[in-house]
């Protein structure tokens, strides 16, 4: 199995575990923000799962593998939109619904645009997946991705500054760092072409997902230790 | 038992906040008189509620309805507005349906981070 596929699978598992833990909490206390937050986690989990599938199919069926790229961008974009909704719910609740639906429409439009020129997906000799993406599309993905990262991180950190409990402060810092790692790694996949850079990027992405699980599990861990 | 007592104290705080906010609209005398008309509440002439009888949730609902008979939905909105700070302080306190919306629309990052 290619090295990239393994890291994608690990990342997807980390994100799925996080998403399920948050979704379980949502089922218990029906908080709408938890629903949005689990939507974010499921979205990026499906995105990683989609790219992992692409990486797995790269040598056997490159045509299908190339389709997993826009599908992953769509899932990831929808996930990010849910995270934006979380931030707006705290900061500007009046606009959260309209912003959410505008971004969802934008995501669908953008994923359609990516379908016009699908990437060539290849596996290098050392087992790293190379996504040879059209340079204009890569530029758009990175620009929009950076914009969304800054917006979401800004909203999340702004609200986190108001948190007073130490354990929750740590939790919010870990979520912010995890998000930054995941997004940096995820976006860098669009321009990286060398094996070393791709290995480094895969590591950063997986580390981000791992940190996210840790951040979500942290209060339960400290509670268990106290008991 | 002590929980029940502290809850009763919180309901007294909630009722006091409601009466005092209504006093700003319809005047202190009228706001106090309307609350005193209900056997569920014991309060002084300044609008301080000292005891809430019966099921506190139902009693609070009766109090809000009493004011809404006079000023309609505006009274209900003023009641919700009056209790926001208390509800934020005691997020687990149960409220009648008529007062629920504010509790749901004032989430904080702290509550969110604590909820999963």
Automatic annotation (TrEMBL), chain A:
The keyword Transmembrane helix applies. The keyword Membrane applies. The chain crosses the membrane at residues 6-26, 33-52, 64-86, 98-116, 136-158, 170-192, 198-218. Keywords: Membrane, Transmembrane, Transmembrane helix. This is Histidine kinase N-terminal 7TM region domain-containing protein. The lineage of its organism: Bacteria, Bacteria division CPR3.
Automatic annotation (TrEMBL), chain B:
This is Uncharacterized protein. It comes from candidate division CPR3 bacterium GW2011_GWF2_35_18.
